[in-house]
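Morning, I've got a small favour to ask if you have a moment. I've been staring at a protein lately and its backbone has me curious. You're getting the sequence in one-letter code plus the fold written as tokens. I've dropped the whole record in just underneath, so have a look:
=====
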Amino acid sequence: MRKKLLSEGSKEFKYEIREIVKKANLLKSFGLSVHWENIGDPIEKKCQLPVWVKDIVADLAQQNRSYGYCPSKGILATREFIAEQTNKSGGVQITAEDILFFNGMGDAISTAYQLLDATSRLIGPSPAYSTHSSAEAAHANTEPITYRLNPSNHWYPDLEELENKVKYNPNIVGILIINPDNPTGMVYPLETLKKIVAIAREYKLFVISDEIYNKIVYNGARSYALAEYIEDIPGIAMKGLSKEVPWPGSRCGWMEFYNRDKDPEFNSFCNALDNAKMVEVCSTTLPQLALPLILGDPRFETHRTNLNERIGKRSALINSILGEVPELTFNPTFGAFYNSIIFKDGVLNNSQTLPISNPKIKEKVEEWCRGVSSDYRFVYYLLGATGICVVPVSSFCSDLQGFRITLLEEDEEELRKVFNTLRDAIKEYVRS
């Protein structure tokens, strides 16, 4: 090529949640049986949608309008439905014009970061969800800026660190919240959320809240939506169907713009998002048609409650298996369907192993472990020795050493087997 093709920021696109699949599939070709704990796909983990949901989608698939373009911002009736639901919270009020549809949350996240000025930065939580941190870093051509979630304090954010970073970095224009959090399973207390809004007010920032897991809470937790506590601060909520229904293959997400009239720069940003979607023409039509029919059905609340109860039971079971392992810092989860489990300082080193009987698998694992961080080493040995595929916490833009699991396995017998095996592997690994 006469000039280089890639931007400096392109190297920041990393997604270990999917990257580990390549390695696991290679080991499968050597005869390994893999249990996937890397990605949050309820359907892959045997979640069965009720027949009435499938009937709604099937009926729409027979209608000719499902195959055409829709308005660039999204189907008006669907946006009106969402606005009505949001306004019931009693917080900030919106209209259909404050809602913009995307082809899934990934599309929304990517578009938002691309449109920011190159010098403007968003600060987000660490451990970070890779789609956000990679997009933020790529847009800025440098590492993402983060505030720490503290595993020794229920994974709650370090608000003093957050405010100091905002105060002394004038390029920060917004604060990202993921609530409930991926990858930790933490649910933000209302008091903490209000303090974050207060920081945004003090330093004239906007707030983005990724609420893809907002309806997935259990064990007595309550997740607050941004609309409930944003007050008069500019903000954007990101929502979608993928986890809530769940329907990850729908690729149906949307943004809700709050208080866009309070600041001209923020309003211009929202307008640019609208225009960017107009250039793309529109988002997928059929899921938008289905959204009010599914979420507005009186059976949906019972369906979601039942799913949450099952996740809560699995959370309790995993707590009972891993919660007493002395080498781990373990926090119970209350939202989403992940848990990030941290090894205590000094537990891991670069000589620990697990026995692997298959010589091809052993050779490949040893090759992967050269020069990697200690939690990657554990993850690779765990995969090669047991077939359990998890994601290293250090891949989530964190200096912590640990691994992320999911709480999605519907088969309780399989769940017990997998996490008992995981517990035993941890004990063997740290003593090797």
